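re: ur msg from earlier - yeah i can do the NAP complex, just paste it... oh wait u already did. ok heres what im feeding in:
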Amino acid sequence: MEKQKFPKRKRIPVAVLGATGAVGQRFVSLLDNHPWFQVVALTGSDRAVGQKYADACHWILANPMPEWARDLTVVPTTPMKIDAPLVFSALPASAAREAEPLYAQSGIAVCSNASAFRREPDVPLLLPEVNPEHTQIVLKQKQTRDWLGYIITNPNCTITGLTITLKPLLESFGLKRVFIVSMQAVSGAGYPGVSSVDILGNVVPYIYENEEGNMEWEPRKMLGTLQNESLELANFDISAHANRVPVPEGHLVCLSVELQQPGTLSEVAEAMRNFLAPAISRDLPSAPKAVIHLRAEPDRPQPRLDIMAGNGMTTSVGRLRPDPIFDYKMVILSHNTIRGAAGGSLYNAELLVEQGFIP
Ligand SMILES: NC(=O)c1ccc[n+]([C@@H]2O[C@H](COP(=O)([O-])OP(=O)(O)OC[C@H]3O[C@@H](n4cnc5c(N)ncnc54)[C@H](OP(=O)(O)O)[C@@H]3O)[C@@H](O)[C@H]2O)c1
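and the outut:
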């Protein structure tokens, strides 16, 4: 992130909910010296509350825990303990379903990674490169729920890179049918996540009960259109297979796509290569320089080699080729705990600041 190019401004106090987990740690790391946000509280489960963050957290990232975080005392996940207009939620869905509305009720903006509210029609499922205008529906959310604050969510980490890739294809050619097979990293299951006995030397053809259903639905919400403060789902079909593979970070998705309008291979490549985020999202602190990096090598992208493209925020696409059943097929790689979680959530919050939704 090129943080130095942003003008100095008073940083907005923020908290991280569920700060000891895989995504919570990413937040703590990415918020270190963030130009717009300053962490004032880290929350945890009952197990962690009252402990210093350094003692409560089993740090799993390669870069060291920031010094300022080490001595912060972990506080309970309740809005009474938080003096900040914005919180980042890295809670499991069950805890998020209870806690997040309490924050929203008390006037706090919640940028959530949990699946708990993604299907609610008045909750934006947000990718700044794809649908920044969907934030408008928080006005309806606040009004109908009588909340002073609001909840926005980022999508399932597996379909983040997919939805970013589908956006230029939808805009240029329209979409008819999408077939996807995921190979999802173990960190997608959090910490400690999948048992090593289950995953080492193995592939598990199952994630969670609703994973494939979510993968088939969430892109249609994000690629849908805003009509009178309501979202109309994009009209195309998706069939998804989800698999867990023994890779630490980075979800790979094999995509076959049938377009509405014909396009040559080079036109399809150009559409993805030239794709820019909408102007309002383009220069935010977490915006990647390249939204999509279209690779030409026959054996890329690979999680080990390409996962940190654009500081983990760029979607890598490769192996674009004709498909004998659909029109084209390709492979998509996206960083699950950065672009698909904490980095994506920070990018969403920066968009909210830019749009005036956070004072
Ligand atoms: N991992 C990914 O790639 C990824 C990507 C996108 C979205 N997400 C979503 O992000 C959220 C966090 O995922 P994760 O992978 O970071 O999971 P995780 O490693 O299991 O972390 C969950 C965090 O929530 C805390 N917690 C658990 N129950 C709680 C409760 N009742 N009250 C307060 N805190 C509680 C945990 O504390 P303890 O340390 O004490 O257990 C931990 O800090 C989930 O909703 C997940 O679906 C994950």
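cool cool. The first strand starts at residue 12 and ends at 17. ping me if u need the other ligands too
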